[in-house]
Amino acid sequence: MAIASIESNPFATRFVRPGEVAYRVDSESTRADELAETLVTQLIASVLRNRRVAIVGPHGTGKTTLLRRLEVELKRQWPAAVSVRLSANQRAVPFRRADCMIVDGFEQLAAWQRWRLSRSVGVRSRHAIGHLVITSHRPHHGFVTAHRTRVDSKLARILTEERLSQLPPDERDILSDFFYSQITYCRPKQCRLSDDSVRDDSINLRDLWFSMYDEVERVRREKNSE
Q1: Among 1, 64, 138, 187, which is least packed by CB within 10 angstroms?
Q2: In what order do the strands lie in the sheet with 82-85?
């Protein structure tokens, strides 16, 4: 895990990308690590019970971070598990036999690809998949939604303050004010998360931290120009 120095920008990708910041279940408990491990244990149990399992949530709420932690345990259960990370530049999955396939960004696939992949689960064929674990911004038919990710304003503040604590005091004060000015702009629009339309006021922490990175750089440029 990368450790930021006081000269580094603590919001740089190498410090905040999935796997560098541990998934936090909520903002209320001091037992963050214990709660996260309990959640992973529950998710593994859900995968064992169900062949198709989804982690669902808006952009920037920790789906990939949680999946990275879960993936460690899935590969202990199925060492040959196949992992696929989809993006705008990678929108294909290998249609091959696998005891477990892990797909990050399921909605990036075309409808026919999602259908074919889902239909490959639990069948007798050379492309059969034993268990399919996905992340997505919405639930999908045939998948059990095992967990919904969400970042409320308190959790965003706690996680951001952990980053800010690595800055000098003068920069920390400026960035703290900037955080509160930005937090209302980092909430996704109303989205459909179930059969009913549900307003999700979760904060897009990824976009928030992109803005924080830019602000750190701006503050340091001004300091250097004085």
Answers
A1: 1
A2: 82-85, 98-104, 129-136, 52-56, 144-148
Query: 67-88: per-residue pLDDT in tens?
Result: 999 999 999 999 999 999 998 8
Exposure on the CB side of residue 111, measured as CA atoms within 13 A: 1
Question: Positive or negative CA dihedral for 18, 128, 113, 47?
Answer: negative
Per-residue tokens: 63: 């789906």
How much is the pLDDT for 186?
A: 66
The residues near 82 (Cβ < 8 Å, ≥ 6 apart) are 94, 96, 98, 100, 101, 102
Give 128-183 pLDDT, tens digit per residue.
999 999 999 999 999 999 999 999 888 899 899 999 998 999 999 999 999 988 87
Distance CA 65, CA 160 (A): 16
Calculate the alpha carbon distances from 15 to 3, 5, 82 in Å.
Answer: 7, 11, 26
